[in-house]
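tool=predict chain=A
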Amino acid sequence: MNAHPLEWNDLHFVLAVCREGTLSGAARALGVNHSTVFRRIATIEKKLGVRLFERLASGYVMTEAGEAMQESGERVENEVLGLSRKLVGRDLHLSGVLRVAVPDALLIKILMPHLSIFSQCYPKIQLELIISNNYLNLTKREADIAVRVTQEPPETVVGRRICSMMTTIYCSTGYFAGQSECISENHIWLLPDESMTQLPIIKWLDQNYPKAILGLRCNTLLGLYEAVIQGMGIAALPCFLGDPDVRLKRILPLIDELDSELWLLTHPDLRRTARVRALMDFLAEVLEKEKQLIEGQLSS
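tool=predict ok
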């Protein structure tokens, strides 16, 4: 009887704890500190007069009331996000914030100079670049546009396929130092870590060189690229990274099993938004000009 009405921000905090299972995880997701989440959850439980979580050594576990709040909260969240997308989708002005998720290597080695030109052409569009090798949720507006390397884009998004993304094995020019360049399991392999499981190199290596020596794991392609340049081992790199660099050379021809596709993706509700359409068209034109490099056709 004494419960106070909920606010949207209350749901925001409760959903974060439900999803993360810990206060520290929820704090990272919300961009606040641990103590803020602790105080907000305590205040919300007092406001409602119910306990939403059991505090265990392993983390926060939802009570029955917490599960009910998560279910209702997610419905409200989806409605709010859907309304946001629809309103943004009616925006006909070439202005505003545009969040773009793009892999690190592609951004630094190919897209950044072109994005500089885009910003000069559309000074009222504020770009927010999210350097990410993982999928962000376009449905939840974590990004408006995603440049992604994948064979199967999610069914919930729309976009266009740009070209194939070709990959092969590279080493530094001095790595073999007069020894045979025939690949064997004795070579030191540099691999992506579990955060980039979408890359097929792990499966390919297990099938072809199951006893390969692992020298290093890295969560970015640019990190692997630099490690290869330093002679730390051999690695699968996209051709747009390896081919232009005179410090590197291909050990193998293009490997079909490592082939993927480059896509430009957005949410269906945003595809007619003026600023989204402007950047999608711009990036498609830019990447088409870089197609030979991305598909590994420029190597001598």
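The two ends are 78 Å apart (CA to CA). The domain at 167-258 is CATH 3.40.190.10 (D-Maltodextrin-Binding Protein; domain 2).
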